[in-house]
């Protein structure tokens, strides 16, 4: 992702792709509302087999959880928040609203067309890192990563509770402490 942002010298009418961070499990709802407001959106999904204790089912899975890709101009950038309270913020890198290149958005759009199962990996956490839980019932607590299970779930030891409870959380539910 580039960190290009619109500046005073940039064309305020130029359409650029940005990434919105939305509340969990609201990606499709936000996408529909943005479409109704006249925005072009991208929410890549894929049919994947999910297994429960009593059944297996093919479900439509959003590949980038909590993310909605939206094409907008600098002039209309704040209008995305009219899609309801589910839009939390724009994803930023280096303190600036992240902008995707045409090639990057084309790749994102193609991911949903693949038949092979896809898992999106964010910059991985490492054992021993101190983190803050940023969403869910444990939001605001701090812990240390003691193990990493696969790609999307980790275990935390919440030493601040003096009980070292191990919990599994998605990597999108935590952030690094600097």
Descriptive key words:
mainly beta, 178 residues, disordered N terminus, single chain, Alpha-Beta Plaits, SH3 type barrels, 2 helices
Task: Find the CATH superfamily of the largest domain.
Answer: NusG, N-terminal domain
Question: Span from first to last CA?
Answer: 22 Å
Percentage of residues in strands: 35-45%
At CATH level 3, the topology of the largest domain is Alpha-Beta Plaits
Q: What is the strand tally?
A: 14
CATH architecture of the largest domain: 2-Layer Sandwich
- Kindly give the count of domains: 2
Low-confidence segments, given as residue ranges, are 3-9, 157-163
H and E order: EHEEEEEEEEHEEEEE
Structure class: mainly beta
Secondary structure layout:
Blueprint: E1 16-22, H1 27-36, E2 40-42, E3 45-51, E4 56-62, E5 67-72, E6 87-90, E7 92-93, E8 96-97, E9 99-100, H2 102-111, E10 130-133, E11 142-149, E12 153-157, E13 166-170, E14 174-176
Antiparallel strand pairs: 1-5, 1-6, 1-9, 2-5, 3-4, 7-8, 10-11, 10-14, 11-12, 12-13
